[in-house]
Amino acid sequence: MSPITKPDLCNALAIRKAARHITSHYDRHLAGTGLKVTQYSVLAHLQRLGPRTINELASIMAMDRTTMGRNVRPLERDGLVSITPDPRDARRRALSVTDLGLERLRAARAGWAAAQARFDEVYGPERAAALRETLAGVTALDFEKAR
Fold first, then answer.
1. CB contact at 8 A, 84 and 93
2. Quick one: which of 42, 70, 87, 113 has the most CB atoms within 10 Å?
3. Contact 66/54 with Cβ under 8 angstroms?
4. With contact defined as beta carbons under 8 Å apart, do 81 and 75 qualify?
């Protein structure tokens, strides 16, 4: 186990370092599927929510539209996601998981579950649950309106 390093004074740096560290852990577990954890999350969200515009999905996943586009392009190229008229409003285009995407998502679930279980094992399930709750609270902050 690595020694605990001195905490960063900058909140943004500390959160980004932790995010990169955890992302790397999940990506190692998903490596055999050809998906990165963010791509896995895109597919999982679309499977659960149904077709969504790129702007809607970006908002749900707390990403900007450009970053979402960079994550979606390889999924579309590989035939895992399709972009078609939105069934809720034909003037818009929506992302949907293809049958191949669902197949890849099913294949990746075991790797994701292993990464999740290992994180909980090493960090502690109670601490992991508390961390997710804390991070959800951070994500919900509106820095523009908060006083």
1. yes
2. 42
3. no
4. yes
